[in-house]
Design goal:
The complex is a heterodimer of chains A (391) and B (197).
Chain A (H helix, E strand, L loop, with lengths): L2 H8 L8 H12 L2 H21 L5 H8 L16 E9 L4 E8 L5 E8 L4 E8 L5 E8 L2 E5 L4 E4 L7 E6 L13 E5 L5 H4 L26 E6 L12 H10 L2 E10 L4 E9 L6 E9 L3 E6 L3 E6 L19 E8 L6 E10 L2 E9 L20 E6 L3
Antiparallel strand pairs in A: 1-2, 2-3, 3-4, 4-5, 5-6, 6-19, 7-8, 8-9, 10-16, 11-12, 12-13, 13-14, 14-15, 16-17, 17-18
Helix pairs in contact in A: 3-4
Chain B lengths: L7 H8 L3 H23 L2 H18 L10 H19 L19 H15 L2 H11 L3 H12 L4 H8 L3 H18 L3 H8 L1
The chains are: A alpha+beta (391), B mainly alpha (197).
Chain lengths: 391, 197
């Protein structure tokens, strides 16, 4: 045996194991909704049997018990890829207002944010997805955090991370429901100064002129068109209409070029090329690789983006041996033909002849409405100071 | 590959719906998977995070596990290998030091935080391993994988071929090339350090 092998054989690490992590992970795994669903079915079956066998009046006692185990509990502590569910935009040349929320697929919560980028003021509401009841409410301004007097959910380590809030639902008497699993993370991302004051005149879709020099007639229905773009779910949280419209200008489309054996990573990559339908020029390549658990999209090998398939709940519907040459991300922008205003933007991935919706930004009716500063008035709504937050 | 239970096939079928049985599989394999990932990454926080990912993916895809293709443990190692490769790919151009800052202590107890620090301190004392790992990390992932599995995890050629889904001949050749490449990469002072230890 040569020296290097001796060293290799002697260098292995001792067997110390992070027991606390192991036990925490085990609890999380065993509390997974995958098991809960089965358990619930068995439980409900038992209840049904009991009802038939015993007295119907038991139903009124047993049914609430079955609800103690909520089906919406999140399997993973981290849910980084929740969907944006609502957005609004205001532009009066002094203020920009964005409303958006992030929704955990398996949590019965939705989040709405109102952000004044000019003055760094944030309002953040967590609502029950079904009843629309506000469960928690924050105002963040001048690095101070204010919170509603009567929150229905419990923040977890809220103040230790500057761009991060985690919450847990309360059931009653301030008890946290199913600690460690039922957690929704909200991310507050600050838009860089240089992004805030980009050209704000971009609110109407610039219709491409026909070859005869005429503009196509505006239809009295939403105009939808598709824009292929780099897959980056994190980017959704900092998307604003100005950025969207900048992207719309190029209206890219992808072209499958072929397969490529990446020597460094020793794996097969699919090469896709973005072409500009207006200029017909091909200006950027995407390198897409996939393994059983993820799709990786690498733009010109300069920045790597990873999208975990199971985070998008695709695991049961994907044939991993499928041909991914048609992988595209679609952004569909709908514009009201009468007003010229954007109604919504939808993001989806299409491959293997399947379309999987990722998220949607919906522009609310008060598009371009002036900013109502009272939204951030913590005194008016009886908020109480809840600490400091660095944005 | 040595089977942990006599009737593992049956146990895995049950584990698909029974958390208690899945818990047994978890207890059996957690240590191996954690150590494998720690050997790949030399980063306690990353090893914990990727081990979590591995088991969540195993749980989510257990229904899809086909016993006839590979042993369960090889399947778990495959997931862990993928996780490690994704980690390296994601962090190819990012300072890895930042990783531990987001290691997920937001829901963890103080005990797990202390434990984490102890393990990190323990790791930092393993100078030969860390120096070696630095060199290993410069190799292509396919060479990293075989080195770690063969020398740190002490897997047989057959086991490695099952985990990596390559023929035994290919594995032997990969190991041979990996060791030769590693010789070129390691700091010569490591030999002295090894001699003096």
């Amino acid at each position: 045996m040569n020296k290097i092998e001796d060293i290799l054989n002697s260098a292995k690490l001792p067997g110390s194991i992070p027991e606390a992590h192991k036990q925490k992970l085990k609890r999380e795994l065993l509390n997974s909704p995958r098991f809960k669903k089965k358990k619930q079915l068995i439980w409900r079956g038992a209840i049904a049997f009991g009802l038939v066998a015993a007295m119907a009046v038991f139903f009124f006692f047993l049914f609430p018990v079955s609800n103690v185990e909520p089906s919406e509990i999140l399997a993973k502590v981290k849910n980084n890829y929740g969907n944006i569910v609502q957005a609004g935009y205001s532009n009066n040349f002094d203020n920009q207002l964005l409303l958006f929320g992030k929704q955990g697929d398996t949590l019965n919560l939705r989040v709405e944010q109102i952000i004044d980028f000019t003055s760094d003021q944030y309002r953040l509401k967590v609502k029950d997805k079904d009843s629309k009841e506000t469960l928690d409410d924050y105002i963040i301004k001048e690095n101070n955090l204010y919170r509603t007097l009567n929150p229905q959910i419990q923040p977890v380590n809220t103040l230790s991370k500057p761009n991060f809030i985690a919450v847990q639902k309360l059931i009653e008497d301030g008890q946290v429901e199913n600690e460690n699993t039922d957690t929704l993370h909200l991310f507050i991302k600050k838009i860089h100064d240089s992004e805030r004051h980009k050209d704000k005149s971009f609110i109407v879709y610039n219709r491409p002129m026909r070859s005869n020099g005429e503009l196509p007639a505006i239809k009295n229905e939403p105009i939808s068109f598709e824009v292929n773009r780099e897959v980056d779910l994190d980017e959704y949280f900092i998307t604003n209409p100005v950025q969207l419209l900048n992207e719309m200008e190029s209206a890219d489309s992808l072209e499958f070029v072929g397969s490529y054996e990446d020597e460094y990573w020793s794996e097969k990559l699919q090469q896709l090329r973005i072409s500009n339908p207006f200029t017909k020029s091909k200006f950027q390549s995407l390198w897409v690789s996939l393994n059983k658990d993820s799709i990786t999209v690498d733009t010109n090998l300069a920045a790597v983006r990873v999208v975990l398939i199971d985070s998008l709940r695709l695991d049961s519907s994907i044939n991993f041996d499928a041909d991914f040459s048609d992988l595209r991300e679609l952004k569909t922008v709908s514009i009201d033909g009468n007003s010229g205003q954007i109604k919504n933007v939808k993001f989806a991935i299409v491959f293997n002849k399947k379309k999987i919706d990722l998220s949607e930004i919906r522009f609310v009716d008060h598009n371009r409405a002036p900013l109502d500063n009272s939204v951030f008035d913590h005194k008016k709504e009886k908020f109480i100071p809840a600490g400091h937050i660095r944005l | 590959m040595q089977l942990p239970f006599e009737n593992e096939k049956e146990i895995i079928e049950k584990a698909k719906s029974d958390p208690e049985i899945f818990g047994k599989l978890f207890e059996k394999y957690y240590d191996q998977i954690y150590r494998f990932i720690l050997h790949r990454t030399a980063n306690v926080a990353a090893a914990e995070e990727l081990t979590s990912n591995t088991f969540f993916k195993a749980l989510n895809n257990l229904w899809n596990f086909k016993w006839s293709e590979v042993p369960f443990s090889a399947w778990l190692y495959r997931i862990a290998t993928n996780e490690a490769n994704i980690y390296f790919r994601k962090n190819k151009r990012i300072d890895l030091k930042d990783f531990s800052e987001d290691a997920g202590f937001e829901n963890g107890s103080l005990a797990s935080y202390d434990e984490h620090k102890i393990l990190e301190a323990e790791l930092s004392e393993k100078r030969i391993f860390l120096n070696l790992q630095k060199a290993i990390e410069t190799l292509k992932p396919k060479y990293q994988e075989v080195i770690v599995l063969k020398y740190f995890e002490e897997k047989s050629i057959k086991e490695i071929s099952e985990i990596l889904n390559k023929s035994e001949g290919t594995i032997k050749s990969l190991i041979h090339r990996a060791v030769n490449m590693l010789k070129e990469k390691i700091d010569p002072s490591l030999y002295d350090e090894y001699k003096n230890e």
